[in-house]
Amino acid sequence: MRHPSLITLLTDFGSQDAYVGIVKGVIAGINPSARIIDICHEIPPQDVFRGAYLLYTSYKYFPKGTIHTAVVDPGVGGKRDIVCVKIRDYFFLVPNNGILSFILQEELPEEIVRITNTTYFLQKSSRTFHGRDIFAPIAAYISCGVKPQQLGTHIQQLNKLDIPEPIRTKMGHIIGQIISIDRFGNLITNITKKHVRDLKTAEKYLKVTIGKRKITGLSTTYVDVETGKPLILFGSTGFLEVSVNQGNAQEYFKAGRGNKIAANPYK
Amino acid sequence: MRHPSLITLLTDFGSQDAYVGIVKGVIAGINPSARIIDICHEIPPQDVFRGAYLLYTSYKYFPKGTIHTAVVDPGVGGKRDIVCVKIRDYFFLVPNNGILSFILQEELPEEIVRITNTTYFLQKSSRTFHGRDIFAPIAAYISCGVKPQQLGTHIQQLNKLDIPEPIRTKMGHIIGQIISIDRFGNLITNITKKHVRDLKTAEKYLKVTIGKRKITGLSTTYVDVETGKPLILFGSTGFLEVSVNQGNAQEYFKAGRGNKIAANPYK
Amino acid sequence: MRHPSLITLLTDFGSQDAYVGIVKGVIAGINPSARIIDICHEIPPQDVFRGAYLLYTSYKYFPKGTIHTAVVDPGVGGKRDIVCVKIRDYFFLVPNNGILSFILQEELPEEIVRITNTTYFLQKSSRTFHGRDIFAPIAAYISCGVKPQQLGTHIQQLNKLDIPEPIRTKMGHIIGQIISIDRFGNLITNITKKHVRDLKTAEKYLKVTIGKRKITGLSTTYVDVETGKPLILFGSTGFLEVSVNQGNAQEYFKAGRGNKIAANPYK
């Protein structure tokens, strides 16, 4: 692995306060040449699931050695651990609260270190802003070449969220659910290409039911259907998505995260 | 032109997802020393007109050689082209959907290349996230010194939006419209200094009518009038603006984009 | 002081326009190697008090030599001055409108320069966008090594806001107020550890009254109480905060900035 120097930030800190800027200031004070890229700061407060999903969809697109720092941390200041996890040539600096769950469905961690070495914390650490006092300086020191094993003690297990899996009914239907809704109102489900392949149906006969409405036939991009019309496709994350061409599927279907989506062959 | 290394991003990706971060990750993976500056990511979904306006008001303020990457792209994955356009020592990497229209009112492109060389695309490109799969890597390669002609084939014409022009009535009045409303509620019109000069009236006698309300006399800055009072001035973009000193003209006048604004000499 | 090269930006420009991007473009054109970090751009329009609070809570976390550029500037284009102020090895480039008030409660400026040297302004400066035309180029030139005294003339005094101080009642109670509400709904008051020490009560007997509700006992972090329950603690800024564990105290208490908070020993 080459010497890491890129740090990403994914938090629920929002943009109305100075919290993100402060975190960057601390990093710049320790490693002035560290490069910082924001993945997202608009995670709804304490929404670890959404943080886990966005981290999963983005981490691979960064260069190897990147230090992904994810602070969605409802347990801040309590007994939860902060861990540094090495997966596929990436470092993850996260609270041990399940925020790596989507990634751990596909990858095994090479190394997990529970961070205890206060030498690398900010002096006079608070118990309410670990982003500033622990995550920022630790990320900066890793970017300077500090090794995970210098940060604390190895542990074997990570906490995981309960990631919903699609189920298969006796009739052979797949019942998945919406796991993410993006800015454009696209409804991203937990149904993958593998699930659909198992249905053994031609793409043009794939039928999706959302509420009382049905969409038949898999599209390959939004403009495959007329403006304002709904469609289904495998989106850029690899999951089945329900969209509306140049519209908003969330509004069109009045849908929310967790809503069920059924997929089955059209008869 | 000096070796370009600054990349700007202007998109409708918003801030609630990881899309912008992913684009930056891809760029950093190809050119770790490329500098990236966000122009705006809060373009309303698919609002090419607003993207065109913001790009026009900002592009000149960047150093020569900057690669302006604008992804407001309702036609993503369809037949629309992606083009690299060289204008006044700047590169523009954009869908060919009119997003350069405001700029093309003032400037002629030196070179237009339709991007077809998939060598520079991300492997396994999707048809729904060209920001990640095409725009990001191409921008990064241009910042590494790849020339536009290496990206595809030259074309002669760019698509253009229908940019509204003020009209002149028989009575000699100018009827313009609001083309942009900013965060402060300033109402930016398509009326320029030239249009007002043609009215041949003293600045203090210039009268603007918006809805049923009138403002007389051109100000030079907001505090020329009392707090809470409306005014007209030529704003930082060069267009006639309707503002309220330390207030919000959009709320004051209940105005929206496209609303008509008349300008004429006061009698 | 080492050669400065980090510039921070704190503005009320928001994210829907291109204003912040333009400011960065101007800086990059003058000093391509200047590093820029955003502190916050979502200050409500013209809310100098909030800008002052956020600048105070963040400035120290940046490396020495940082050029803090704060543009919350209701008087833009009018008679207010723009000043460069040196405090504790930091540069502050601000309108002279009180935005340093919180900092000046703790620190004395070493040097105050009223900026008048138009050599360092953008050519053809507007009177409505000094962020682009004056603040950006001046910050960039300071980052290139230009000294404050080259920018204008020394002055002795800075304008200050009226920062509310807690008062002490005859009964020995402290009456403070909410000075900031963050993204998480935490209610940050102007009551400090010193004020509470003066109450001479054990931490577990400290009682806070907000509206008709009372909270007794000082917590050290959010998870000290059950999920959804309110608490009081000294937050990461050093001020007494009213919070709800994994909830939103602003909604819980229907509180707003300026609301009174009483603190007194529990009997």
Short description:
The structure is a homotrimer of 267-residue chains. Chain A is of the alpha+beta class and 267 residues long. Chain A is 19% helix and 30% strand.
Description:
- Three copies of one chain form a homotrimer.
- With 267 residues, chain A is of the alpha+beta class.
- Chain A folds into two domains: 6-154, S-adenosyl-l-methionine hydroxide adenosyltransferase, N-terminal (Rossmann fold); 167-265, Elongation Factor Tu (Ef-tu), domain 3 (Beta Barrel), CATH 2.40.30.
- The first copy, chain A, is 19% helix and 30% strand.
- Chain A is built from six helices and 16 strands.
- In chain A, the strands form two sheets. In chain A, strands 8, 9, 10, 11, 12, 13, 14, 15 and 16 form a nine-stranded mixed beta sheet that branches.
- In chain A, strand 4 (82-87) and strand 5 (90-95) form a beta hairpin.
- The longest helix of chain A is centred in the middle third of the chain and has 14 residues, at 130-143.
- The N and C termini of chain A lie far apart (52 Å).
- The model of chain A has no long low-confidence stretch (mean pLDDT 95).
- Chains in contact: A-B, A-C, B-C.
- Chain A binds chain C through residues 12-22, 24-26, 28-29, 32, 45-46, 74-78, 126-129, 132-133, and chain C through 5-6, 8, 10, 15, 35, 37-42, 54-55, 57-58, 61-63, 66, 182-184, 220-223, 233, 235-236, 241, 246, 248.
